[in-house]
Amino acid sequence: MSFEWFVSLRYLRAKRKQKFISLISVISVLGVAVGVMALIVVLSVYTGFTEGLRDQIIGINAHILVQEYGGNIQDPKRVIGEIETVPGVVAATPYIHGQALITSGRQSTGIVLRGIDPDSASRVLSLDRKMKSGSLESLRKRDGLPAIVLGLELANQLRVVRGDKIRLISPNGPLTPMGVLPKVRTCQVTGIFETGMYEYDASMGFINLETARTLTGMERGVHGIEVKVADVDQADQVAAAIASHLGPGWSVRDWMRINQNLFAALKLEKLGIFIALDLIILVAALNIISTLVMVVMEKTRDIAILKSMGATTGAIMRIFFYQGRLSG
To answer: Would you kindly state where each structural domain of the chain is located, as residue ranges?
Structure first.
C-alpha cells in the first residue's frame, strides 16, 4: 500500500475530536449511494415501461407497413415475394383496412376492421399470444357465416361471447336513387383477444380478406403489406432497404415513424427524469467536496508535519483526492 493510500484511509477513521467530520463523510457517501440507486431504479422501471408499451403496440401491429401511392396493391403476392428477399425481413402479409358499424341485439358501436390472411398473418402478428379464446385459424374461409375476432372490451360492450352472432354494417354500398345502400353482413364471433391497450381492445376486430373485400367494395388487391423484421430496433434501416428495393411510388413506414409522437414524448419525459435524478447525485457530490474542504482545514497541522518530513505538494493532494475517491 502506498503512503498516500495509507494516510487517506487513516483520515477516514475519525478520532474522538473528529467524529463530526466522519459523520458528514458517512452522510455524503449515503447521499451518493441513494442518488445513484434512485437513478438506476427509476430509469430501469421507465425503460421497462417503454419497452412494454412498445411490445403492446407492435404485438398487434406489424413492424413495417408498405403501401402504394395512388391506390391499392393489385398484385400482393409479387410484392410480398420482393419484400421477403430484403435482408432482415422475416415475413410479410397483406391486409385490408376499413370501418363499420357493429351491432348485437340492442348494442351497437363503431369498429375498426382489419382484413388479414390467417395463413401468413400468424407469422407477422403476435395476436395468437393475446387470444383469450379461439385463434386466428378460425378466420379461414369456411362454410356458413364469416368469422370475426373481437377485442375483449368491444365484446364486453356488445355483450357477446365466442359463438354469438353480430352484424357488420358498412357504408361502402352501391349508389341508388335513394342514396348509398349500406352493406350488411352477419358474422359469427370465433375469437376474443386482449392486448392490454384499451384503444385496441375496445375498437378493433379481425376478419379474413374475402369478408373485408365484401364490406369495403374491393374487387381485388389489398390496401397494404405488413412486414415483420428480425430486430425491431433496426426496423428503420430495413424499411429504408425495402423502399430502395421497391423503388419510387411506395410508402414504407416503420413502427417508430408511425408512433413517433408517442415515443418522442416518452423520450423527452425520460430525459427530464434523468436530469432531475442527476441533480440529486450532484448535491451528494457537493457534500463530499465540502467534507474534503473541512478535512483539509482541520488537518493543517498534519499537513505541515508531513511537509516537514519531506512529503511533496503532489503527495498531499493525492491523499485528499484518494479520500474523496473512496467516499465517491
So the answer is: 3-52+264-327, 70-248
